[in-house]
Amino acid sequence: LGFLALALGSCDDETPENGGTPEDNGWVLVWSDEFDTPTSDNRPNPSKWTYELGASGYGNNEKQNYTNQVKNASYETYDGVGCMKITALKDGDGADYSSARIKTEGLFEFRYGRAEARLKLPYGKGLWPAFWMLGTDYATNTWPACGEIDIMENKGIQPNIVSSALHMPGRSGGNPVTSTFGYQDRRFDTDFHVFAVEWDRERIDFIVDGTIYHRVEKASVTDGEWAFDHPFFIILNVAVGGDFGGDPDENTYFPQSMYIDYVRVYQKAADIDPDANYGDVPSGSSINGWDFDGEDSDKGLLEPEMK
Fold this sequence. Notes:
Layout: E1 7-8, E2 28-33, E3 50-51, E4 64-66, E5 73-78, E6 81-88, E7 97-99, E8 101-103, E9 113-120, E10 127-135, E11 148-153, E12 161-167, E13 177-182, E14 193-199, E15 203-208, E16 211-217, E17 232-240, E18 256-267, E19 286-287, E20 290-292, E21 301-302
Parallel strand pairs: 1-13, 4-7
Antiparallel strand pairs: 2-18, 3-8, 5-6, 6-18, 8-17, 9-14, 9-18, 10-11, 10-17, 11-12, 12-13, 14-15, 15-16, 19-20, 20-21
């Protein structure tokens, strides 16, 4: 498995890299989905998530059809934890396989901050779970110019290894800025783990279970065009087959699910943009004079109270 090329982890789950909680390190929660309260139809909350649909292969020769059906994305309690479950099935629904790809596009976006998710991954050859972000201007600023931040990707046949990547002009496709992280004696498909990115004007850090294993400094990228100074939205999906980890074989068992305990986004006060689309943010939060109220504004922001 090439462990000499990996950053080997040894921290406990959910331990921020500086100790304590993200709030202890100056981060303020601006958006989250805890997946504790199912919707009436048991599908992802439509105020927070929408769907990518179709079976185009997405430029990677993927084999799944992404649907908006409850069989592929639904609330589930796993080991007492409320979760969103994304499930890949071998069911011939528009393709050999069906799955889901949920995203915050048009509902929530942010520039600079900390995005984290607590995930339990699927297992098997040909499975490709991912937690990532795409530049919101991708329709007019064609990929890779829009930028792509892959917080976590996994080849399902390697249950103790994950990777991260940055795609930008000059460093995209099969040549991103990338790194891997692995455990010698723990697996990502048997328990929950926390995957995070911390992103600002000067650098991007990739973190697993509190360990920073990959830091990319803007100044160090001399063979690519930095594409990470504008808003991004969040994506979670389970692809099947494709160029990243190969296709399933006779030993790949279906169904396979990725369980999402929560997704949270934090920012520093100086990075709060009152004109940005913050969507459904935690009500009652107050940052830099701005009071957050997710039910009062489509931007989730109210004018600061004058003192």
